[in-house]
């Protein structure tokens, strides 16, 4: 008998637009010989399944079920493709844990920690060969904090919401005059802001996933942007960024990166597929950790999809491995 899978999408943040695009790809790609898929849209105060006729059928939050034509549908598992809150920050994971429903992404604790860039960096900082840019984590936008930034950090700086995604609210600051506006922009998105020194290097993003009981490190994608950094426009506007998969690294770099990112995956107790962004510093080739994304995009052009195809794997098989691994966990 086919397993019933809830494909959860939508969300409470600006990333919901990307989540819907990812869900559309997963919905049409997933193996229908193995799974019955129900797309569940989650918005503040409004969780529902959209029927073939266009009717919005509400989700019973007591047991995460839906009622279709007098028949109650419950789910064997959840394919989570909800970027941002509540799908990526641990809130949904905690809810599904209480109901005993397995899901394809990281558990509640890992999801909550990795959503916070500052806390994540503190945990992975002692991994051998991994470097972290000097930074300050701010909890309020005050004159005192601005003075602290000027005395402790060197320009240029990256200012970013600590819990955000898709580079929303992020700025590059080259002069101290630009700092107040950049901080306002970031604090508009989040109550915590990370201010870090700029690392001059080649930028990469690499997928890692657990399937068939083993961790697989995918080929990295090199990000060559015509913008100053990989911001929202660069990520989601065609032609702004060149994405090279596999990225241009020598054998030593490929082996070292694989070693480091597997350790990051293990140390953070990740599950499912994650994407890790990093720099290789221009002068030294050193690995600088940027951030981890525990619900990476799954659109046709998403980096994970490119990387899966680069190892000769069908994306449909990749999804099957994620789902089957969820039932093993």
Automatic annotation (TrEMBL):
Cofactor field: Mn(2+); Mg(2+)
Pathway(s) served: Cell wall biogenesis; peptidoglycan biosynthesis
Record's keyword annotation contains 4Fe-4S: no
Taxonomy of the source species: Bacteria, Pseudomonadati, Bacteroidota, Cytophagia, Cytophagales
Species per Swiss-Prot/TrEMBL record: Algoriphagus kandeliae
CC cofactor note: Binds 2 magnesium or manganese ions per subunit.
EC number of this enzyme: 6.3.2.4
Binding site for Mg(2+) 1: 277, 291
Function in brief: Cell wall formation.
Superkingdom of the organism of origin: Bacteria
This protein's name: D-alanine--D-alanine ligase
Location within or outside the cell: Cytoplasm
ATP-grasp domain sequence ranges: 117-324
